[in-house]
Amino acid sequence: MWDKINVFMQSSGYFHLSSGQLLMVIIALILLYLAVVKKYEPLLLVPISFGMLLTNLPMGELMAAPHDGQIGGLLYYLYQGVKLGIYPPLIFMGIGALTDFGPMIANPRTILLGASAQFGIFATIFGAIYLGFSPAEAGAIGIIGGADGPTAIFTATRLAPHLLGPVAIAAYSYMALVPIIQPPIMRWLTTREERTVEMEQLREVSKLEKIVFPLLVTILGGLLVPSALPLLGSLMFGNLMREIGVVDRLLKTTQNSMMNIVTIFLGLTVGATAEAKSFLNPETIGILLLGLVAFSFGTISGVLLGKLMYRISGGKINPLIGAAGVSAVPMAARVVQKVGQEENPSNHLLMHAMGPNFAGVIGSAIAAGTLLAVLS
After folding, report:
1. How many structural domains is the chain composed of?
2. Which residue of 110, 140, 223, 233 sits 20 to 30 Å from the alpha carbon of 64, by its own alpha carbon?
3. Integer Cα distance of 249 and 372 in angstroms
């Protein structure tokens, strides 16, 4: 009888739980708390934190590869969509189907704000190389500055697959923490007078403009950076379905069922890459810190260009909208709206901020394609 009890205990996860796994379980529960209680992007953090929890419970083997005729773990097979670069373009397709590029088309100057916010990517690459990472690894780390989880995953799987776990966790974590990270930077770089600027209402964009836009971006962007086409093409195809108005069934599926399913699979498997044995090391800490630097520099460069545009326009552009140039849609735009209204309750910056926010999505895809072309 005691032998059977001993065998059962030996097969129990309690007996094999390491201190590192326990720490990762605690981190997973903290992330879950932030998602549920603090409402920090729960659609991202809930599956990521639960995937992290699952992979760090011993003996579950959910990420185990098949071996000796045995099938692999459930999350291992779902993870192949990440490893093969399938999920990120599908997420981009869903984003395109949900996106109205009207604010960006109405005010093309905001494209510059989206482009400037990508500065954090390239600045961090040089910092990562200085710290000893290879150019390819530095590119995978730098893309965190785009604040776009799917783009970071797509780039990391091609440049540095062994860094995918910490890069993906960092990218999604900083996306979720936009409301904490960005406001202090925005207030630090702007004056109260600048933050209170009320911008003119945007012009109405015609249906023809909205249909031509995704076609034009696909052609021009695809010719400029062919390696960005999986992301850029998927984004623009999703948007084209939205604007042409003749494929409602496909559009609704892309916006809802497909987007939700892929988000679940992507979140769970990204979280499942954060195993204690591969996650708790100095290299991971360095990646997390460099990712924070990249994201902060992206915000800084966007706001600084916003200040320049404020002066050139004679005070007609609120520099806060430059912070939305990072690709965290729509979190960054909502943060701009919140900070602006704290200074001026009658100020409505959301639609103006959506322009650079959408430009940041396109910019991060092009930046990723550039890195792949140069560093692969």
Report:
1. 1
2. 140
3. 34
